[in-house]
Amino acid sequence: MSQENVENSRAFFEAWNAGDMGAVGESYDPHVVVRYADGWPEGSEPIMGREAVMRQWEQQREPFDGDTLEEIEIIDLGDRVVTRFIWRAAGSGPDLEIEVTSVATVRKGKTILVEFFWDHADALTAVGLSEQDAHADS
Amino acid sequence: MSQENVEVVKAFFDAWNAADMDAIRELYDSDAVVRPPEGWPEPGPFIGRDVVMRQFQQMRETWDTDAGEPLSDFIEAADRVVVRTAWRGAGRGPESTMEFTIVFMLRKGRIVYHETYWDHAEALQILGLSE
Prior knowledge:
The complex is a heterodimer of chains A (138) and B (131).
Chain A: H1 2-17, H2 21-26, E1 28-35, E2 47-48, H3 50-61, E3 64-77, E4 80-91, E5 96-107, E6 110-117, H4 120-126, H5 131-137
Parallel strand pairs in A: 1-6
Antiparallel strand pairs in A: 1-2, 3-4, 4-5, 5-6
Chain B: H1 2-17, H2 21-27, E1 28-35, E2 46-47, H3 49-61, E3 65-70, E4 75-77, E5 80-90, E6 96-107, E7 110-117, H4 120-126
Parallel strand pairs in B: 1-7
Antiparallel strand pairs in B: 1-2, 3-5, 4-5, 5-6, 6-7
Helix pairs in contact in B: 1-2
């Protein structure tokens, strides 16, 4: 199951980069919860529900002509997938390049919880891993 | 850190059984998320400490007294703590005992997320643990 979760996570990135927001939405449980990192531009209160999350992503992408997610590292943690990635966006205004780590919890093939961390080490610590553990496992 | 997490979860049970809802409140992150088991009358998830506490209050109001009894060890799994629980309520109407397994997730000494399963084996399997 965990390898399947990793594959689904990669499929999410591919769908995002292809602009296929229907497929992005399909990866979420209808009652998914997204917890932002402290200091997230839109505020750090969690968002609940697939529709609300998808609205949020659409709003985030809207100001740019194009944007992509670039995977740096992906770690299989059984029912969770840790992904370190860069969000690059360009268009009106200055280009954007943000590095973030997400921890996605998956149930029955759908993501039910996403947590974002600015700092990769913080994310690893949160899930009980060190950078050394993460590289030993990958 | 995980032993510290177990202590927080034990404190949750102590506070619950002492009906010290202020102490329970202190154990939750302000943006905590609580996901009830499948088929629960109010499906949730409940987001934010205030909402979670309101939900707990409503659950307890159904009975004159209630208590949570850990039935298993407190199982440490990195940032998560798993415990099989019996929740017993008595007072108006028939007495009630429900058994379920709670998976608590903690960050910086606070509960940020918890989800509940009717089936203990299912909860363990999901977390990659065995009985």
